[in-house]
C-alpha cells in the first residue's frame, strides 16, 4: 500500500488524501450530528415538558390555595363564629337562626370562587349548608367516605375525584375537608367544600400547550385524582414507576413500560403534597423528527462523497498553498489576534474566501462591542424581570380582609389598609426605577407589615432599627426586604402558638451596608435552603431568597451576598451585605 501510494504524483496523493479525509469527515460529522440532535431533542423535550408541567402545577396550586383562603374567610365571619359558640356550649335551640345567618357567607363563597359546588358544615348541634343545595337526608355524614379522614391531625385534607354523597345530583367533585379556624375550642366540627370536577379540570387543561391525553394527576398510591383524559395510565400498578416519583418534588426520568421507552416528567403539588402531576411521552414519537434527520444526513453524506471524488482532484491543486496561508491566519485568530488580514495577488475563489474572512473578522470585532452593550441591557432587563417575580399573593388576602372589615363596619381599619396599600404600590413602583433610597425601602416594608398585621391579627410584632440616620439616603435595590419579611410571616409563624416577632436592623461596616431580618419562627434547614438559593434551577422552597439573591448578584456581582442562620423558635436571621456604592 505504501509503495503504491508513493508512486503517485504529489497532486494524485493530495487528491487521494483529500478524498479520504472528506469522506471520513462527512461520516463523522453525520454521526455526531445525529447524536447531538438526539441528545439535544431529548433534553429540550424534558425541559420543555417540565416547564409546562411546573406552570400547570403552580396554576392548580393557586386554585387550591384560593379555595382554602375563601373557606378560611368564611370561617372568620361572625355567623360562623356564633355557630361555633353554640357548638362549644352544646346549645342547639338556635340551630335555625344560625343556619339562616350562614346563608350570606356561604353564598359569598360561591361568588368569590365559582368552582365551589356545595359546602357542608358538620357540627354536633346540626349540619349547616346553603339551603338552595339539596342535602341528601338518607345518608349520614359519618357514613360517607369522609369518615376515614375525620380523626387525622391535618387541618386541611383534599380528597380525589368522587361522586358527591352529601347533596343530590350525583355531581363529580373533589372535596376539601377543613377543621375550623376559630378562637373557640370546638371539637368534632368539619367544613366540607365540594369543588366541581369540570371546573377544576379546566384549570389544569387550559394551561397545557399540547394534548391532555398524556397528562395525569395521581395520588401517591398511583390512583387517578382527576380524570384529565379518558385514557388509563400506562403505568397503572407499576410499583417501580411510583417509587421514582417519590425521589423529589419535581423532575424527569426515563422508564420502560410494556417494552416501550417513555420520557416522564412529574411535579408534586404544594397544597396537596400526596398529589402529583405526571406527563409521559414515548421516546419513538419524540425522536421521529430525529430519524428523518438521520436519513437526510445519510443521503447528504453519499452526495458529498461523490462530489468530493469528482472535485477533489481539481480543488487540491489550486487551493493547497492559499489554504495553508488562510489556515495560519485562522490559528492566529484562535489566539485572539483579530487584527490579522488575508492578502493575495490572485482573484480566485480562495482569495474571495480570504476577503470574506477579513470581513468576518471586522464584523466579529463589531459584534463583540454590540454583545457587550447587549449584555449590559440584558442585565438591566433581568433585574426588572426578577423584581416583577415578587409574589403578589398577599394582595388577595389584603383585599379579602378589606372586604370583610368593610362588611363588619370596621371603617377605620379599612381606611388604614387602603392607605398602606396605596403607599406600598407607590414605593414599590418607584417611578419605574430599579434603585431607591434606604428610607423608601424601609417605608415600603413598613407598609407591608402594617397590612399583614391587619390580615393576620395577633400573629406577630415587628421593629425596624436604623443605627445611623445618615444612611437613609443611601441608594439600594428596591423590594429586597419585603420578600424576606413575607417568608417569616408565611413560613415562620403559621404553626406557632405564641406571638411572632420580626426585627429588621440596618447598619454599616467600613464599605458595606448590612441589612438583617430576624424572627423567632419555625426556622429553616440552612444548608438545604442555602444550596437551593444559590443553584441555577428554581425550586419552590427558597423562592423569596432566590429572588433577592439573584437580583443582588445581577446588580452588585460578587460584592453582595446573603448569609443564613437558624435556631427554630428562637432566632432565624437573613443577613444581606451590599456595597455602599452601586456599579
TrEMBL record:
Transferase as UniProt keyword: yes
Alphabetized InterPro entries for the sequence: Bact_2-comp_sensor_kinase (IPR050640), HAMP_dom (IPR003660), HATPase_C_sf (IPR036890), HATPase_dom (IPR003594), Sig_transdc_His_kin_internal (IPR010559)
Superkingdom of origin: Bacteria
Major subcellular location class: membrane
Membrane topology classification: Multi-pass membrane protein
Residue intervals of the HAMP domain: 317-369
Record-given protein name: HAMP domain-containing protein
Keyword Acyltransferase: no
Compartment annotation: Cell membrane
Keywords for the protein's UniProt record, in alphabetical order: Cell membrane, Coiled coil, Kinase, Membrane, Phosphoprotein, Transferase, Transmembrane, Transmembrane helix
Spans through the membrane: 14-37, 296-320
Coiled-coil boundaries: 357-384
Amino acid at each position: 500500500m505504501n509503495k503504491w501510494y508513493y508512486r503517485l504524483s504529489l497532486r494524485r496523493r493530495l487528491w487521494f488524501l483529500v478524498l479520504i479525509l472528506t469522506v471520513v469527515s462527512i461520516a463523522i460529522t453525520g454521526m455526531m450530528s445525529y447524536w447531538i440532535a438526539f441528545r439535544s431533542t431529548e433534553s429540550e423535550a424534558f425541559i420543555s415538558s417540565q416547564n409546562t408541567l411546573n406552570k400547570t402545577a403552580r396554576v392548580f396550586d393557586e386554585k387550591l390555595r384560593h379555595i382554602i383562603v375563601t373557606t378560611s374567610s368564611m370561617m372568620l365571619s361572625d355567623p360562623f363564629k356564633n355557630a361555633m359558640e353554640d357548638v362549644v356550649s352544646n346549645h342547639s335551640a338556635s340551630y335555625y337562626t344560625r343556619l339562616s345567618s350562614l346563608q350570606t357567607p356561604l353564598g359569598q363563597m360561591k361568588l368569590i370562587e365559582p368552582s365551589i359546588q356545595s359546602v357542608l358544615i358538620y357540627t354536633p348541634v346540626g349540619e349547616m349548608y346553603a339551603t338552595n343545595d339539596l342535602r341528601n337526608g338518607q345518608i349520614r355524614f359519618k357514613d360517607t367516605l369522609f369518615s376515614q379522614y375525620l380523626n387525622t391531625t391535618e387541618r386541611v385534607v383534599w380528597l380525589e375525584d368522587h361522586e358527591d354523597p352529601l347533596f343530590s345530583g350525583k355531581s363529580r367533585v373533589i372535596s376539601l375537608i377543613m377543621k375550623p379556624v376559630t378562637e373557640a375550642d370546638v371539637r368534632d366540627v368539619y367544613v366540607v367544600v365540594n369543588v366541581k370536577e369540570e371546573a377544576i379540570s379546566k384549570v389544569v387543561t387550559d394551561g397545557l400547550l399540547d394534548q391532555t391525553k398524556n397528562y395525569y394527576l395521581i395520588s401517591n398510591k398511583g390512583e387517578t385524582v382527576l380524570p384529565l383524559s379518558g385514557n388509563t395510565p400506562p403505568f397503572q400498578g407499576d410499583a417501580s414507576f411510583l417509587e421514582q416519583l417519590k425521589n423529589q418534588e419535581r423532575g424527569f426520568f426515563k422508564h420502560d413500560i410494556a417494552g416501550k421507552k417513555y420520557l416522564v416528567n412529574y411535579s408534586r403539588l404544594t397544597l396537596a403534597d400526596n398529589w402529583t402531576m405526571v406527563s409521559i411521552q414515548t421516546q419513538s414519537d419524540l425522536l421521529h423528527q430525529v430519524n428523518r434527520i438521520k436519513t437526510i444526513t445519510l443521503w447528504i453524506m453519499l452526495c458529498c462523497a461523490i462530489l468530493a471524488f469528482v472535485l477533489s482532484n481539481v480543488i487540491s491543486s489550486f487551493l493547497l498553498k492559499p489554504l495553508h496561508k488562510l489556515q495560519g491566519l485562522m490559528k492566529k485568530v484562535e489566539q485572539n489576534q483579530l487584527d490579522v488580514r488575508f492578502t493575495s495577488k490572485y482573484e480566485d475563489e480562495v482569495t474571495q474566501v480570504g476577503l470574506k474572512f477579513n470581513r468576518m473578522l471586522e464584523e466579529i470585532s463589531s459584534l463583540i462591542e454590540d454583545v457587550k452593550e447587549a449584555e449590559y441591557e440584558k442585565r438591566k432587563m433581568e433585574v426588572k424581570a426578577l423584581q416583577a417575580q415578587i409574589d403578589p399573593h398577599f394582595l388577595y388576602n389584603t383585599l379579602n380582609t378589606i372586604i370583610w372589615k368593610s362588611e363588619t363596619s370596621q371603617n377605620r381599619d379599612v381606611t388604614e389598609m387602603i392607605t398602606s396599600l396605596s403607599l406600598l404600590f407607590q414605593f414599590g413602583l418607584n417611578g419605574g426605577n430599579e434603585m431607591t433610597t434606604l428610607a423608601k425601602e424601609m417605608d415600603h416594608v413598613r407598609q407591608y407589615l402594617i397590612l399583614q398585621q391587619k390580615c393576620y391579627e395577633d400573629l406577630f410584632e415587628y421593629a425596624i432599627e436604623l443605627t445611623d440616620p445618615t444612611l437613609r439616603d443611601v441608594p439600594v435595590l428596591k423590594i429586597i426586604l419585603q420578600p424576606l419579611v413575607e417568608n417569616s410571616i408565611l413560613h415562620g409563624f403559621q404553626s406557632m402558638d405564641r406571638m411572632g416577632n420580626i426585627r429588621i436592623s440596618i447598619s454599616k461596616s467600613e464599605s458595606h451596608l448590612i441589612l438583617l431580618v430576624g424572627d423567632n419562627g419555625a426556622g429553616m434547614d440552612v444548608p438545604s435552603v442555602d444550596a437551593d438559593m444559590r443553584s441555577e434551577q428554581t425550586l419552590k422552597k427558597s423562592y423569596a431568597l432566590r429572588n433577592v439573591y439573584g437580583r443582588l448578584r445581577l446588580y452588585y456581582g460578587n460584592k453582595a451576598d446573603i448569609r443564613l442562620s437558624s435556631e427554630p423558635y428562637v432566632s432565624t436571621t437573613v443577613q444581606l451585605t451590599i456595597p455602599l456604592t452601586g456599579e
